[in-house]
Write a structure and sequence with these properties.
The chain has 132 residues and is mainly alpha-helical. The protein has two domains: 63 residues, no CATH class; 53 residues. It is built from four helices and four strands; from the N terminus they run ββααααββ. The strands form two sheets. Strands 1-2 form a two-stranded antiparallel sheet. It has a two-stranded antiparallel ribbon with strand order 3-4. α2 runs antiparallel to α3. The longest helix is centred in the middle third of the chain and has 32 residues. It is rod-shaped, with a radius of gyration of 32 Å.
Length: 132
């Protein structure tokens, strides 16, 4: 039978016998105060290690409270008014190009219904054109 080496608790500095299931990883004794201190330290370490991830997730929730929307007030608060203006202008350009692409797709599939609805004007020289 081998004798287990006693260890000193990291918090109370008392000697203790480590649990055989934990082995060399056990650093604290089993008193409630030392276990509480160990838990607090582990939580501090975890929060420090995961702080960038938590920050990123919180910012993502604040930026887009609903799917498909962007809260420009949060953008302005985080990165300034120049970034807000840039994002606003880019979204306008993206919406315009997406709308033009959608109209072009509709032109290819439903040319007659678009002419009748007045969304597309008829130009004799070119064929069909999208109004400006």
């Amino acid at each position: 039978m081998t004798l287990k080496r006693r260890r000193r608790c990291r918090y109370c500095r008392e000697l203790f016998n480590p649990d055989h299931r934990v082995g060399d990883r056990q650093k604290t004794c089993s008193t409630p105060d030392c276990q509480r201190m160990r838990k607090l330290q582990n939580c501090r370490d975890w929060r420090a290690r995961e702080a960038p991830v938590i920050k990123r997730e919180r910012l993502a929730r604040r930026l887009a409270p609903q799917k498909g929307t962007l809260n420009l007030k949060v953008v302005r608060d985080e990165w300034g008014w120049k970034t807000e203006v840039l994002i606003r202008e880019l979204s306008i350009l993206t919406d315009r190009s997406r709308r033009d692409e959608y109209i072009g797709i509709e032109l290819g599939k439903q040319r007659l219904s678009l002419i009748l609805s007045g969304r597309v004007a008829r130009d004799e020289s070119v064929g069909f054109r999208v109004p400006p």
